[in-house]
Give the backbone structure.
Amino acid sequence: MQIHSAIPDLRAALNNRRGIVFVPTMGNLHAGHIALMAQARARGDTVVASIFVNRLQFGLGEDFDKYPRTFAEDCEKLSAAGVDLLFAPAENDLYPETQQYYVDPPEIQSQLEGAFRPGHFRGVATVVLKLFNIVRPEVALFGKKDYQQLMVLRNMTRQLALPIEIVGGETVRADDGLALSSRNGYLTPAERAEAPRLHRVLRGISDAVRNGRRDFAKLESEAVAELGRNGWKTDYVAVRQQVDLRVPQPGNTVLVVLAASRLGKPRLLDNIEIQAVQHER
């Protein structure tokens, strides 16, 4: 696996490559990331990963300096997964001058995750567009666990007419249903035993909606209450349209239920896509 930190070096290494598939990450890799690399290998000829902890997407109270950095271990995992090139720029490589031009997503950036992390999706969209311009992939993969991020980047790519196919990788879960995340390592043993409840609660909403329930607000409040009774501090549980994460319109059956909730210190995310039935109840 080749490793490059400078933009000109990476571009030179990719100059005669075809079928480039790109998986951006912030490092601290787990099995979910590696599953994306395997999907990438099946989609093209050249797999490029990146590791960059992007300061622009960290808000107030989010400690950029304490984000776990495990570069040596990450490189071993990426090499074993068959990644061809790793782009691992320093901050000065990617931002040689103060970034003054940004990608500003629409109002959805201030809802759900955005309501609790102001400016987060502005930072994500800006760095991803910059990475796209550097790597110039034909396909890019992002995990579905960060569903709002996937939607923002997919719609950005479409509206800016970028010649890139955005693919959502299925969430990788532990045997008990917990979505794999770097945050899981901060759970105490007791919290880890409780953590799968988030997925079970979302599965209950998904089943209810598939069976015809449309009282979304009630389903959401019931879920928040159940989590609260078991020690969770929930930011949101929401049923939304997959395409734009707006409140579902009558007749729209392509939905997703999303949640963010804190169990102890870790803040866990999860979601389940839903194909609902047509009739209402």
Observations:
- Residues 98 and 197 are 43 Å apart (CA to CA).
- The domain at 182-275 is CATH 3.30.1300.10 (Pantoate--beta-alanine Ligase; Chain: A,domain 2).
- The chain has two domains: 2-169, 182-275.
